[in-house]
Amino acid sequence: MLASLRALLLPRRAPATEPGATAGEAAPATVTMHSVADFPLAPHLSRSHGLPVLDWQQAGAWVALGTGAEQQAEAWARCERAWLMHLQAALGPAYRLQESGKALLLSSLEPRVAAATLDFINRTGQRVLRVLEGIAQAPAWGHDILIVFDDAEGYYRYVSHYYPEAGEFAASSGMHIDAGCGHFVTVKADLRAIEPIIAHEMTHACLGHLPIPAWLNEGLAVNTEHRLSPLPGAPLHTPQQMHAQHLAFWGAAEIQQFWSGKSFLRNDEGNLLSYELARILVEQLSADWPRFRAFACAAQLDDGGAAAAAEHLQLDLGALAGALLEQREPFTDWSPQPALWHEAPERGAF
Question: Are residues 97 and 141 in the same domain?
Fold first, then answer.
């Protein structure tokens, strides 16, 4: 993908037409479905920071009026396109909405780069299902939607709608938003970064049917991302440096934040270390794939996956984390303890 993107950026005559593009097409006022009254968009579109947000609960209720799964799936897809066309209009004339296969892309990417990105999205969905065989599941309805913002300001303007008004949150360059209509968002700062973000966020989308804790969700996404689109060049930290940082950071209180998912929201080194610890744990546990698959499919958010690990892996998660981080036995304080979590646990896909 990266090589093809570089090749596409070389001077070359652009095609006369762009299949699947909606540039210049007016955003619709309604969405239609055979034998059902039209769905008017205006009463169900609100604005957040100047950008349109569709009431997906109402859209879903309208879609449910359809006769049969095929008609309902098509109606939902039409709602997605209609919302994206309104978002396109709000973002400005540089943005184009393009479609290929199951993928929808809203961006200002140069046409040939956009086409390569759409192709990568379609191929990556199938690859995620193969890598996470028996765990991942393609969403039953809808497209794989990627929105690429021109800059960080536009990106944070959009994603701020999905965060609480108060608090400090870790920086990001991409995320999967699962709020009625699942979609991925990223920034066009560096085209080389789009590939791993797509792989990471599409993994989250394919795990959306499971009530798994954040550490498992993120660990699966990071490992799948590294397998499908490894970044070239040396990492920022050596394994020895990362291990030293882990030993200095994690304690009994911090590990409870990890199991509850709250450490992934920290705006200090705990954010990076949480993703890395999740990656290591999933890498270790998935060596025996059949047992790990059973664990992942049974893991529950409310106990950090502790009961499923005991049943399917015959291990205590606290003991595993404690041993990896060179803690002294016993590891009682390191096991997930939901009674110590002061807020509801996180599902991940941040």
Answer: yes
DSSP-assigned letters across all residues of 224-237: HHHHHSPPSS--SS
Same domain, 200 and 246: no
Six token digits for residue 101: 């296969």
Same domain, 84 and 156: yes
| 23 lies in the same domain as 80 | yes
320-340 residue pLDDT tens: 999 999 998 888 899 999 999
pTM of this structure: 0.78
Rounded distance between C-alpha atoms, residue 56 and residue 241, angstroms: 45
- Residues 115 and 100: beta-carbon distance below 8 Å: yes
Distance CA 128, CA 202 (A): 8
51 and 183 housed in the same domain: yes
User: For residue 189, what are its two tokens?
Assistant: 């700062």
> Is there a cis peptide before residue 139, judged by omega within 30 degrees of 0?
no
Residue 308 tokens, joined = 């499923």
